[in-house]
Amino acid sequence: MDDVRFAVLGTGGIGRRTLEVSQHKDGLTAVAACDRNGVAVDHGGLDVEELLDATEGNIASGPADDVATDGGAAAAPEGVKQHGEQAGVVASDQGRPTETPIDDVIAESDAIDAVLVALPNLEHDFIPRVAERFAEADYEGVLVDVLKRSRVIGMLDDREETLKESGITFVCGAGATPGFLTGAAALAAQSFVEVEEVEIWWGVGLKSGYEDNRGTVREDIAHLDGYDIETAREMSEAEIEELIDDHDGVLEFNDMEHADDVLLERAGICDAEDVHVGGVLDVRSDEKPTTTTVSVTGTTFDGETGTNTFQLDDVTSMEANVNGPALGYLKAGVRNNRAGHYGVFGPADLMPGF
Amino acid sequence: MDDVRFAVLGTGGIGRRTLEVSQHKDGLTAVAACDRNGVAVDHGGLDVEELLDATEGNIASGPADDVATDGGAAAAPEGVKQHGEQAGVVASDQGRPTETPIDDVIAESDAIDAVLVALPNLEHDFIPRVAERFAEADYEGVLVDVLKRSRVIGMLDDREETLKESGITFVCGAGATPGFLTGAAALAAQSFVEVEEVEIWWGVGLKSGYEDNRGTVREDIAHLDGYDIETAREMSEAEIEELIDDHDGVLEFNDMEHADDVLLERAGICDAEDVHVGGVLDVRSDEKPTTTTVSVTGTTFDGETGTNTFQLDDVTSMEANVNGPALGYLKAGVRNNRAGHYGVFGPADLMPGF
């Protein structure tokens, strides 16, 4: 594939690490990055190392409980540390302050092949609305997000005609789960003519990455019994710490609303209701509390019922399993976009057909 | 995806079972099938059940040790039973005798979206030459094969310009391995920025399918120490039986020449020499002698070295793991073809980019 010039909206944990991982990949050039206060653009290729060094532990964000409530502007992806007015991208030599970071990237988008949207989506329609803004500017290219929630897919589908008219290939849910593990489920299904159940079970040990991933943890809390997105958003940092204390740092999730279900259904692999997602998060250890496993149970054409499995090594971090696949799906999105395939695609849509 | 009209060249084990599996799939209509003596075409859709019933245990083939030596004509895919002049497709109400079965399918190819080439390839360039004949007829569509040998990929690549000019998307090595397991390796690599080793280890129990898969067994024997394609082709049935007896029915293969290596290298995932393929074949039991496992070892962006694994349930038959993926990759090929992506693609090229 020819060189892919990409931008990152949001330079919190996911945005930063995607920039870092892209340095290891052939054919990927980061040309723009922004956060709520700043934007950096260099069509010859950003100096990613300088940008990451300058923003290390210095990510532009409002107070944690303000995250993503500003909707229309570029919010920081995760509620993490802030260091005064020079926080975030503007602390880099390549950055400049702006009040319209997303619009500034859109203004450059003629020379951008793909955009990773690493913004928080606590408001469900925030990322769909960002996509709309790219479409309004007649962007022809790829948008990729790493969203989790099932209901967002429908909001993107509602905008599919607008995206198609613009020439946008939107790859949604392209992180670890949904994303990496959705793709694994789609592939594992290939032994079967009928899929009965998909079980996705993840383990994450987040001790050393906890500070960088508070936004993710907050979003996970919304999946716990007795919590929802609104209550999770309204919790103070102290309340979150208390909740984590009550669970000795280990939170177990069952039947999460993860878009794996609708993404597998739209690819024709199984009914959404036959997909179950859960996992265990340990914020006090880097060891995974359980092994991340995808189990796909189905029936073969010759009448046998079996379970194929995909397992990630416990040493592979959540970060590695989000950012590698995000870039992998981004590349697949570019292949599709250059071929004129526009609209909304899930990870399973980019796999062999079922 | 809109309806895909497909043809099968060769109605031995793989061709027959692909027709059977397609009955379970949405959006696939079998419109043509041929073997060395006959062809059946119905653009409204073949009566697959009638065709399979009529050809059950009745596959047109020369004597086993003649298999695939006729090159230019449609050879039967595997050296199995023959029952006189009415053997194979001509035994079906839908079949008619022909001396030019492949040309007869090519003549209909304007109305065919994809062709599964389930012909034997003991002569390495046989399938590449069949592809050339489709290109000479200006076929615009997909060709899929389930070949195994690494060296065939180069022969296809040599013809890539011809295929592109015609508008052909050739998906090569789209069975179990290479194919299903190559795709799994490509996906499992997504945790890593550097892949150090891919190990593909398969188990096949073939007791009840032995008669239908003698051609495959013969091709596997060519991978044993002390054998090659020529010696395997020249062995009589009695000699093969004797070899199998000597091994009590269980043949173990190491460092096989399987195209997984070049297919993963061409997708940029690792060097061909870091891919190892082996397995155990038991022709006297339906139980798999070992669990089919793909292990991908690599290093993450954050410096950890780990191994992701993909395992097929022991109850999933070799047949299920060849024919489901063959149709899955066929569908992916059609998506690419309709988007104007022509040339030679391996399974890993149809996965998220690395």
Automatic annotation (TrEMBL), chains A, B:
Annotated pathway: Cofactor biosynthesis; biotin biosynthesis
Reaction equations catalysed: N(6)-[(2S,3R)-2-amino-8-carboxyoctan-3-yl]-L-lysyl-[protein] + CO2 + NADP(+) + H2O = (7R,8S)-8-amino-7-(carboxyamino)nonanoate + (S)-2-amino-6-oxohexanoyl-[protein] + NADPH + 3 H(+); (8S)-8-amino-7-oxononanoate + L-lysyl-[protein] + CO2 = (7R,8S)-8-amino-7-(carboxyamino)nonanoate + (S)-2-amino-6-oxohexanoyl-[protein] + 2 H(+); N(6)-[(2S,3R)-2-amino-8-carboxyoctan-3-yl]-L-lysyl-[protein] + CO2 + NAD(+) + H2O = (7R,8S)-8-amino-7-(carboxyamino)nonanoate + (S)-2-amino-6-oxohexanoyl-[protein] + NADH + 3 H(+); (8S)-8-amino-7-oxononanoate + L-lysyl-[protein] + NADH + H(+) = N(6)-[(2S,3R)-2-amino-8-carboxyoctan-3-yl]-L-lysyl-[protein] + NAD(+) + H2O
Amino acid composition bias (Low complexity), ranges on this chain: 62-76
Region Disordered, residue ranges: 61-97
GO biological process: biotin biosynthetic process
Residues at which NAD(+) binds: 10-14, 215-216
Keywords: Aminotransferase, Biotin biosynthesis, NAD, NADP, Nucleotide-binding, Transferase
Gene3D superfamilies: NAD(P)-binding Rossmann-like Domain (3.40.50.720)
Lineage top rank: taxon: Archaea
Assigned protein family: Belongs to the BioU family.
Protein name per UniProt: (S)-8-amino-7-oxononanoate synthase BioU
Native source species: Haloarcula rubra
